[in-house]
Amino acid sequence: MKCLNLFILSLLLIASSHAQKLMGFTDTNATKQIDWEKQFDAQLNAHNLDTWMQFLTSHPHHVGSPQDKANAEYMANLFKQWGYQTEIVSYDVLFPTPLTRSLELLGSNPYKAKLEEATLKEDRTSGQKSEQLPSYNAYSADGDVTAQLIFVNRGTPADYEELDRMGIDVKGKIVIAKYGGSWRGIKPKVAAEHGAVGCIIYSDPADDGYVQGDVYPEGAYRPKDGVQRGSVMDMPVYPGDPLTPGVGATKDAKRLDRSEAVTIMKIPVLPISYEDALPLLQSLHGPVAPSSWRGGLPITYHVGPSTDNVHLKLKFNWDLKPLYNVIAKLSGIEFPDEWIIRGNHHDGWVNGAEDPISGMVAELEEARAIGELVKKGYKLKRTLVYCAWDGEEPSLLGSTEWSEDHQEELRKKAVLYLNTDSNSRGFIGASGSHTLEPFFNEIADAVIDPQTGVSIQERKYASTLVNADKASRTKLIGNKNIKLGALGAGSDWSGFLQHLGIASLNLGFGGEGDGGEYHSIYDSYDHYIRFGDPGFQYGVALSKTAGRVMMRMANADVLPFDVNIFYKTVNDYVTELKTLLDNTRTQTDEENNMIRDSLFDLAKDPTKTYHAPKIKDAVPFLNFSDLENEMMQMKNRTEEFQKQYGDATRLPVEKQNEMNQILYQIERSLINENGLPRRAWYKHEIYAPGYYTGYGVKTLPGIREAIEQRNWKEAQDNIEIVSKTIDQYTLQVQKAMGVMINKS
Ligand SMILES: [Zn+2]
Predict the structure, then answer these.
(1) At 15, is the pLDDT very low, low, confident or very high (cuts 50, 70, 90)?
(2) Ordered structural domains, the chain, with CATH
(3) pLDDT value at 306 more than 70
(4) Cα of 118 to ligand 1 centre, how many Å?
(5) Ligand 1 centroid to 112 CA: how many Å?
(6) How confident is the model at residue 743 (pLDDT cuts 50, 70, 90)?
(7) What is the crossing angle of helices 27-43 and 359-375, to 10°?
């Protein structure tokens, strides 16, 4: 007996020495939580993801289609079965669909673009012609233009500087640009700013066609007639319904006239395949394109102009169309008014299997499993809000209108917004509010990669290290922490993070399921189960990862935000900006001297036109001292707070609650109600999509973009604005510290 007692005692000792720890949980609660997570994992079933994907992708399900509504109702029913309080929330938004699309090359070698993707017997939904949205760019202008053609590479501002130097002007011309290098809406925006009258965007085979791999149906890549649809709305100004900026697009909302909506593109824009692009590119004369501009077609790429004219004619139906957002809530018991929000969009451009259903089905399975746990006695402290957004593809319509419509409530209640979208085999990708980095890494360490059996954090570390260049590798060795990227644009977080200041996270696996199906009729179930995620193992891994985020956020004793990591990251951004300014100054001086010494003229081929760049204004010194002083305060306060954070789980419950309120509201202090220069809808002073990059994030955007645009006064003004923002943030940290010290 004695021997057995000792044995039990030693077992207990082993158990207690391995007490389980989770950020924001007491040891006892952490142990319980981890136990529930094991049961959660056991609930997840890949077969469900497969079944739901088959239904949700069975017909094209864009905004306004019968399947779009049917999918919303199908998911609403599922959520109800799983115990969620569920509603379908509808809005009426401006969503143009094509009436006329025509593109032809005139002259001696005429060509009429097909603008049609082929039905494939290997792809069962590719023949649903009458239900498919034809290939087009949503929010293009109506137009009927005839002009010469010019090739503008990716169509970014830097490409137009290069055209200038070649002596080529796009004024009055139609431009043709390759997809990639920027968000697609930037291409017609910059083209129109330079006076172009029309814009054609094509998918070059070097990017996602035969240069990358075998084309569909043999392989995953874009076939010759595959077209990338997509929105060209000027979303860096504001996303969502163009007619109702800042408010929900409800039935009785006050609407702008279409002519007043600044986010609608000014010129006609049409996306085409590389089969249709080839004759157009062959018609170009003029200089040979710079080597970095050339693509994978078997021609010599010229910049143009073409001798023959191109005729582009587009007309759209500008009706309002209904949106169907599914909103499903599972109420928390202790803090029903603290919301953990989870979203993925459900609308697709066509059948949309990878984008967005692969993420949507992972969210559904996660919601189902949590519903099962609750039936078995799992108690949620906070409320979970599961959302399936409509209209993400046109311009984040469903999420933006819902977040604008519920802004008062969200400002008070939202603790976190967790987003997913497309998902496929490979490595975890994570971006979001930097306060969430340690919390996310704890989860990445707990989820197992389905192909290798190591944690998804370990696998990400391996790929980061193997793919790092030799110079940066040394710094990365041994550091398995996954650095959260900053969020620009690209999916449904914008309304939450950048408009309302709600801490946000975006997750997804990818990197091994690449192909050329994006926004074409070939993004189908048949394509996805061969190339995206056969067996839905990464769908289940996404459910495990995102489900843990939801459950831990819902049940943490003290919310798992790390304000010191936030400080460190923002401090790196400040350093980056100072370096950017210094480098701009040095480069400007060097280049101006080279111009004065005629070096550009001496270095060029005298038989070709290649102008020297123009003399630029000298770069002044800006005064960063206010910002640096505020950063120093922030450093001290956040270090102090995070040192004590571990003890906060021992605070009396009322104190914990008081502190949690401050912690989840702290992201709101980064909001400046006046918004960013020239785009007041974007109010977050740390993260915004780039005005001239679109998807690409600009951190400290007010300062950074002013420096990039050489607007020195605006840069200095924004340094002062950000200083005040940082001060507001530090005050909140101090307030939280006060709660911690003042224990009684
Ligand atoms: Zn998507």
Answers:
(1) very low
(2) 28-94+321-449+484-555 (3.40.630.10), 98-318 (3.50.30.30), 563-577+622-741 (1.20.930.40)
(3) yes
(4) 23
(5) 31
(6) low
(7) 120
